[in-house]
Amino acid sequence: MPFASLSVTPTPRLGGGDVRTRGVGATLSDAKGMAGGDVPMRGVGATLGDASWIAKWWERVEVLTPNGPEAALLSGVDVQSADDAIRAGEALLARGVSAVLVKGGHHAAEDRSVDMLVTAGGVRRFERARVPHDIHGTGCALSSAIAAGLAQGRPVEDAIERAFGWMTAAIAGARRTGAGRMVLDFGAAPPADV
Fold first, then answer.
1. Range list of β-strands (E), the chain
2. What does DSSP say about strands 33-37 and 3-7: parallel, antiparallel, or unpaired?
């Protein structure tokens, strides 16, 4: 069965968050597992509306990749620290998700990015230097890279390590193509040692 990367982000010009979620059940009905990220609607004032469709996918999500604010919304735990991220991850595990990677990249005041992986087997901290950037879509791209690693048969932690390696290279090669935000270098290769 295929793996899928699920990212539900609103498209304001189309009328809000639920527009892009229609048909998700049909599209993902054959998916073995998913790396899901960016589920809440950030920055546009949209909500998930009737989010009952999410509940049926929890147990199929192999790695959920919310940032702190998204993890807070999904879990009910205010995420302000690594300990909070662990508690939010544990709350999401209790819903049936296999692993939760709570991304700490939204704490802009810090010079380190700290992401917490929470699984039934324990907690792993991923920490690296923050790379200053003005790039949109890094969370979706990371989730997709993790899903690609899972589809290759990599264990969860290996898929995440490799995705982080690729993301670092993709950010380093990002370029501005106009007046908007920079665009990731989607052709970037992860370091050979990852």
1. 3-7, 33-37, 61-65, 99-102, 112-119, 122-129
2. parallel
Question: Whole-angstrom Cα distance, residue 107 to residue 185?
Answer: 23
From the list 153, 184, 113, 151, the residue with the least C-alpha distance to 34 is 151
For residue 192, the 8-state DSSP code is T
- Distance CA(181)–CA(160), nearest Å, equals 25
Convert the pLDDT of each residue in 49-93 to its tens digit.
445 556 666 777 788 888 888 888 888 899 999 999 999 999 999
Q: Where are the domains of the chain?
A: 3-145
Render pLDDT for 158-171 as a digit per residue (tens, 0 to 9).
999 999 999 989 99
Question: Could you read off the pLDDT of 9-20 as tens digits, one per residue?
Answer: 433 333 333 333
Q: Which of 162, 79, 168 lies closest to 118 in space, CA to CA?
A: 79
Fold of 3-145: UDP-N-acetylmuramoyl-L-alanine:D-glutamate ligase (3.40.1190)
Beta bridge partners of 135: 182
Q: How far is CA 53 from each of CA 119, 129, 158, rounded to the nearest angstrom?
A: 23, 37, 30
Name 113's bridge partners: 128
102-113 mean pLDDT: 74
Q: What is the pTM of this model?
A: 0.76
